[in-house]
Specification:
The complex is a heterodimer.
Chain A: H1 2-25, H2 33-52, H3 63-73, H4 87-102, E1 109-110, H5 114-131, H6 135-143, H7 148-168, E2 177-178, H8 186-200, E3 209-210, E4 213-214, H9 227-244, H10 248-258, H11 262-281, H12 298-315, H13 319-327, H14 331-349, H15 363-380
Antiparallel strand pairs in A: 1-2, 3-4
Chain B: E1 2-6, H1 14-25, E2 30-35, H2 38-50, E3 54-60, E4 63-69
Parallel strand pairs in B: 1-2
Antiparallel strand pairs in B: 2-4, 3-4
Helix pairs in contact in B: 1-2
The chains are: A mainly alpha, B alpha+beta.
């Protein structure tokens, strides 16, 4: 025990000492316009490549789908087609932690209405699974020629716009508190634990279970890039996205609230890069019909993503951003992420998630409950600071 | 006179919203914004610079103090 405490103290002193120097020497290139465009382009290049290497169609990276797959891999739901501990997500958190430590941007903090954030995470995920994708996947679906994504993106922007109305009227979840250095390490440690579980219990061909972990033998959960390529890509994206604060929700929120296009330029770069990559790799297929892991119920693509957008706006970040925040010490973002994972378990256990066949049997009721919860949060949690 | 905005512990977009509101409600030329994350420091700086303000950033331990001066 004493050795662990000494190790943590040593790590902390190391960061406060040597690495601080490095952090100050390097100007944060990624916070510039060129930087955010670079990050969007890197995601836009890596995601279609991951798809080529095995990830599901138009799902090179999807934070919602991958969170849902993680819930399945852990057996929190038993939808046997979506069970896999996605290494990209593990890489996101660990890459973000590395960037935050090296550049002296790591701050262990928590206490800004964590349970509210958990609930927002639950309903954000439920909304995203009605559409079938997080904002990143909406962009990737668009750049793969899936026009259903246009409805999803329109819904996302509508939901964010509703969120900005609350923000303008004083909505906020209060201040965070500083906490123990080690408290902020818990999320990265949990992710490292998931990786260790994958190494101890690797996938066995055609077996639905390996030790404690569940593995899909068919469906999207069975489609995945090789583990080390997936985690490597995750680490790269986590590292640069932490530095740039890349956020799809923030892109539209800042445009609506402040007429700022900084984050939006990263989103546009992602679409452009992914479009070029999909054309090169032969993964571009235009149309509404027969798109991979998608349905074409236009109204529900719109409404599902509107719920997700509202929840993201109220929580202060898209799923990707929440994951990067959870890697740099933000305990509230970690609660949101686990809210999303829990939400996906509800979504599949209760029949709320859509599938290419259409809506889940209780998807509409869940979306209504989600809007009720978000509106309750938005209307009642206002405070003048 | 200067207006001080304590946005420590708040995450985006709150610090930017508070700064923007202050520039509307106050006639002061100088604003001091206190934040405790790099993201907030960058966001407030970007917002201020887009309004042609000059921004001077000072790091104090884990926090930042932004001295923002409005153009005449």
């Amino acid at each position: 025990m004493a050795a662990i405490i000494n190790f943590i103290a040593f790590t902390e002193s190391l960061i406060n000492g040597y690495l601080k120097e490095i952090g100050f020497m390097v100007k944060n290139f990624f916070s510039t316009r060129k930087g955010i465009i670079t990050v969007g382009a890197v995601i836009g290049i890596l995601a279609p490549l991951l798809q080529k290497l095995g990830n599901p169609g138009n799902m090179g990276i999807c934070v919602a789908c991958f969170g849902r797959d993680i819930a399945g891999g852990l057996g929190l739901h038993r939808a046997d087609v979506v069970q896999y501990l996605r290494p990209e997500i593990i890489g996101f958190v660990l890459g973000s932690l590395a960037a935050a430590l090296i550049f002296k941007d790591y701050r262990a903090r928590t206490g800004s209405a964590p349970f509210v954030r958990f609930i927002l995470g639950v309903f954000a995920m439920i909304g995203a699974l009605v559409f079938l994708g997080c904002p990143w996947r909406a962009l990737l679906r668009l750049s793969g020629g899936d026009w259903n994504a246009i409805l999803g993106l329109a819904g996302l922007i509508c939901g964010i716009w509703i969120g900005t109305l609350f923000l303008k009227n004083g909505y906020n979840l209060g201040r965070t508190q500083k906490t123990h250095f080690s408290a902020g390490l818990l999320m990265p440690l949990v992710m490292a634990g998931f990786l260790i579980l994958m190494l101890i219990y690797p996938q066995v061909a055609q077996e639905p279970k390996s030790g404690v972990l569940f593995y899909s033998v068919k469906g999207p959960g069975a489609s995945h890039a090789p583990l080390f390529i997936a985690i490597g890509s995750g680490l790269i994206i986590g590292f640069i996205a932490q530095r740039s604060r890349f956020c799809t929700m923030g892109a539209f929120r800042d445009l609506i609230l402040f007429k700022q296009v900084h984050l939006l330029s990263g989103v546009i770069a992602l679409i452009a890069a992914a479009l070029v990559m999909n054309l090169i790799l032969g993964q571009f297929h235009m149309g509404f019909e027969k798109q991979p892991v998608a349905h074409n119920l236009h109204i529900w693509n719109f409404i599902g993503m509107a719920l997700a957008g509202l929840a993201f706006a109220l929580a202060g970040g898209c799923p990707g951003r929440q994951i990067f925040l959870s890697g740099e010490g933000d305990g509230d973002a970690a609660v949101f992420v686990f809210g999303m994972i829990t939400g996906s378990a509800f979504a599949h256990n209760f029949g709320l998630a859509s599938s290419p066949a259409g809506l889940g049997p209780h998807g509409m009721a869940a979306v209504a409950a989600g809007f009720a919860a978000c509106l309750f949060i938005g209307f009642t949690m206002r405070k003048t600071i | 006179m200067s207006t001080t905005i304590d946005a420590r512990g708040l995450s985006c977009p709150q610090p930017v919203l508070m700064f923007m509101d202050a520039t509307k409600s106050s006639a002061d030329k100088e604003f001091i914004v206190l934040v405790d994350s790099d993201a907030s420091m960058e966001n407030v700086s970007r917002a201020a610079e887009s309004k042609n303000c000059t921004v001077t950033v000072t790091r104090q331990a884990d926090e930042y103090r932004l001295d923002i001066v409005r153009p005449l």
